[in-house]
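Sample pair:
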Amino acid sequence: MVSKRLVLTALLVIIIIFFTYIAVFTITTTGHTYLKFSEENYQGVKLIICGQSSSPKSVVIVIHGGPASKQTSIEYCRNFYSKLGDLNITVVSLDYPANLTLVEEIEQVVKTIEFVKNRMKVDRESICVVGSSKGGYLALMSAVREDVKCVVDAYGPTDLEEMFTYARGEPASWSEWGKYYYNLITYVEENELNLTVLLKEISPIYNADKIDEDVLIMHGLRDIVVPVEHSLRLVEEFKKHGKENYELKLYEDVHGFPLLKDKVYRDLVSFLEKSLKVYG
């Protein structure tokens, strides 16, 4: 006969598992109670999805900068949804693995867009890719490769050869970008490629004519990690190619300013409202 203590223990375990599930798969955000989120794996790409609708009207793909981090990917998903959920936007956060080359990371973003289109059944008119620092760079390159409605590049580099040259003399930059450089060197050697040619192929500034999407560029004037010249030069390339559907926003900030606060946030929301035609 089963003892009362064993039954109580089993019941306690079930209760703990239940509340652990709630804690992991439920997020409480400002204005959104008990937001469920899910994790997806699409062709080897790990994604975090935050939203209340299984058939979203609009999707914002967010890409964080810095090193790979699942926790950062989750925080990006949660934080962006807490600020954009009232616009009926579902947020998809890319959880990219460590030690990829920039070439491979671009492929991760391309597959993320494919997932949103094919699995979530969202058309290009309702998709925007938002990234900061390296994520901003990847957002721009996604527009070179895929067809979406808009991209937001926050203080991302646009010329990789120039970025690597600058970073060698700036410890704050080289600590991160040096790793990307050496990963690319290995990639070039293994695939018998020309480094100079490759850097141009995967630099937004040399592909400006291929970016047809609405673009919001945000940069700090006091950025010493990725100098503001990267954004200014990209704008000049847009002008050369007759592109008009872009916005450049400059702030008295250093590298890494938050996108979800104060004027920066208001500028972001204004851009998304106009491009995706979403309103709270």
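The domain at 36-276 is CATH 3.40.50.1820 (Rossmann fold).
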